[in-house]
Amino acid sequence: MNRFPPTLALFNYDWDATGYARAMGSHGAALDSAGFDLFSFPSNVRLAWFDVERFVARLAAQAQRKGWQAVVSNQEQFGALTAALLAERMGWPGTPVKAIMACQHKLHARQVLQQVAPEANVPFQLLNAEYGGPVPQGLTYPLFVKPVKAAFSVLARQVHSHAELHRHTRFGTRELWVIRRLVEPFERMARQHLGPQVPSAHRLMLEAPVQADQFNLDGYVFNGQCHALGVVDALMYPGTQAFMRFQLPTRLPQAVQDRALDVARRFLAAVGFTHGLFNMEFFHDDATGELKVIEFNPRMASQFSDLYRQVKGVCLHELSLALAHNRDPAHLPRHTPTAGAAASFVYRVFDRKAAVRMPTAAQLARFAAAYPQGLAMQFPKSAGSMARDFKWLGSYRYGIVHLAGDTQAEMLAHHRAASAMLGWPVDAT
Fold first, then answer.
1. Does 195 have pLDDT greater than 90?
2. What sign results for the dihedral spanned by CA atoms 96, 262, 294, 228?
3. Which of 8-22, 36-50, 120-134 has the lowest mean pLDDT?
């Protein structure tokens, strides 16, 4: 067993909490956690006074006393950036701060992609309006609108008219407060690391919509060399832009996977991404052969770690620990795959009036007994938070289940049985 020295994990919740606990068991890692859960009350109250620079300074002061020698984080909103800032300050291995910023500033990333891989880009522009400001006339619809800085597809939606775009960009006082508190820490860092010429992150941008299947290329960069780990297929709820499930193995031909990796290499080199895990979301049109980048996430896609472990014998959380300690992930021992197919099933409601029931303790116990390698997560929310989800995401994601099988057919059969066991709609995914 290769033991990892004491490590700090930032914003260590949900899949990360599960993944790092498993990795600690495999490698004897001493792992401390810091940060708060953005999506759970009362933890998320800390958003009101959160300051990235003070947070990093406080952690740096604790590092010697705690014995930390590395930091990891896969949380999109604050985690990846604060981990990079702390690693830079302490002289630890990490993804360069500027590379994190370049990926997370969606407009800047499009501009870089246009320079190095224009064939994989889509037409884009900045929406010339501040939050809640008048929507410009003369735009050609449909358009895909999304924030310059956001996470979890918040406020990302296709609009078909000026009136629809206007409605989508109206925010209440509380909504504006939340948005600004989420974006402002990034805005300050962007000015410092990307330069004053970069447009404000407190804006929305427009893209030409793409109708094609969606995929995720997962990989890492070590010693400046980019390596692919695999591709995860993303399936949507019919007629929506909402994720229904993510699954391995991919149905994407190897030649297309190689093209995606080539685009990733060019982009990551251009933004100075020399170290760390990454996730590239992209479209591929099987009929035309076109491959278009959606965005680059400068972190591990934690939701997929369990899928890779079961199907490929690769634990992404172990890889992130190796990279954090400057160890070559290629030298990590592989686990024995336990399934031929695995998926992350996402349960959503699209009707604001639909009743959502969470599983009882007895139901969760039956699920755990029936599927010891499975995972069931639930996300109960207040009425206000649910209303915000419908406004910002177009649906309310109330649960996620991970299941596997020797074949895809067996995996889907397990899903039907598990859904009934949890009391969730069998046809939800």
1. no
2. negative
3. 36-50
Q: What is the dihedral of CA 16, 52, 132, 154, to 10 degrees?
A: -10
- Specify the higher pLDDT residue, 195 or 151: 195
Calpha distance 14→297 (Å, rounded): 18
Q: Which residues contact 145 (CB under 8 A, 6 or more apart)?
A: 127, 155, 156, 157, 158, 159, 165, 168, 169, 204, 205, 206, 207
**Alpha carbon separation from 306 to 155, 179, 215, 246, 375 (Å, rounded):** 28, 31, 17, 11, 9
Mean pLDDT of the chain: 91
Question: Is residue 208 a contact partner of residue 122, using CB atoms and an 8 Å limit?
Answer: yes
CB 296 within 8 A of CB 104: no
Average pLDDT over residues 319-344: 96
Q: Taking a C-beta distance cutoff of 8 angstroms, is the pair 262, 255 a contact? A: no
- Binning pLDDT at 50, 70 and 90, where does residue 89 land? very high
Residue 419 CB burial class (10 angstroms; 0-12, 13-18, ≥19)? buried
Task: Show me where the domains of the chain are located.
Answer: 123-207, 341-422
Higher-confidence position of 27 and 361: 361
What is the Rg, in whole angstroms, of the alpha carbon atoms belonging to the chain?
21
Q: Tell me what the mean pLDDT of segment 66-74 comes to.
A: 96
Three-state secondary structure call for residue 124: strand
| Measured distance CA(28)–CA(33) in Å, rounded | 16
Residue 178 binned pLDDT confidence (cut-offs 50, 70, 90): confident
Average pLDDT over residues 171-194: 84
Torsion (CA) 87, 92, 98, 101 in degrees, nearest 10: -40
Give start and end residues of each alpha helix (H) in 250-360: 254-270, 305-312, 316-324
Nearest to 34 by CA among 7, 11, 5: 11
User: What's the rounded Cα separation, in Å, for the pair 213 and 209?
Assistant: 13
